[in-house]
Amino acid sequence: MPKSPQALSESDRRLVAAWGADCAERVLWMFEVERPADGRPRAAIARTRAYSRGELDTAVEILQRFVGGGAARDVKSPAAAAAARSAGQASAICHMGAHALGAAAYAVKATSLAFSERPEAANDEIRWQLGHMTAEVRTALRTLPPVGEDRSGPLGPGLLASGQLGTIIRDLQDGIALPDPELD
Q1: CA dist., res. 128 & res. 147, Å (int)
Q2: Non-local CB neighbours of 16 within 8 Å, separated by 6+ positions
Q3: Can you give the pTM of this predicted structure?
Q4: What is the dihedral of CA 96, 101, 102, 105, to 10 degrees?
Q5: Which of 22, 32, 134 minimizes the C-alpha distance to 81?
Q6: Which residues contact 7 (CB under 8 A, 6 or more apart)?
Q7: Could you say which DSSP state residue 56 is in?
Q8: Tens-digit pLDDT profile for residues 55-88
Q9: pLDDT tens digits for 29-60?
Q10: 117-162 pLDDT, tens per residue?
Q11: Angle CA(81)–CA(84)–CA(86) in degrees, nearest 5?
């Protein structure tokens, strides 16, 4: 069976994992304000960082990626839930690199919910994410198919491809496709 184009190579998954963890960590406080004693999202981000540094085995992390996945269900605030989902998406990057865009999209969603009085908050977060991306991360993410066009992974038709998350990922992919400002 051919590998999904959403998977990325193991080395590219490790690269984009650090960026996905950064995106999730920026909004983690939204979850922790509501549930300060619940360390599941923080632990997921820590595992993602350790995976990105090569400290954790891919096969083991694939089995661990759903550990603590119920954190989003245990909060009342939609922003806190989106922040927890961002951490969950980051921890799934070890399985499929496309989850990096899921982590980023949920972070943008959390930001837009937490700062709904600032319509530019989502675009500001996307700009931060694009600006915080290394050239190597940008190159790896450019190989992913456009959201909604490939059925074999998280960017296929479904949750990440629809509604606000789909729009955010399309905006991210449009930004990723642009020339890297640091290289021009």
Answers
A1: 20
A2: 8, 93, 97, 100, 137, 140, 141
A3: 0.93
A4: 180
A5: 32
A6: 13, 96, 97, 98, 153
A7: S
A8: 977 766 666 656 556 788 889 999 999 999 999 9
A9: 999 999 999 999 999 999 999 999 999 777 66
A10: 999 999 999 999 999 999 999 999 999 999 998 888 888 888 899 9
A11: 110
As a whole number of Å, the CA-based R_g of the chain is: 15
d(CA 132, CA 108): 14
Identify the CA nearest to 168 among candidates 63, 10, 27: 27
pLDDT at 152: 82
Q: What is the pLDDT of residue 184?
A: 42
175 Cβ contact list (under 8 Å, min separation 6): 126, 130
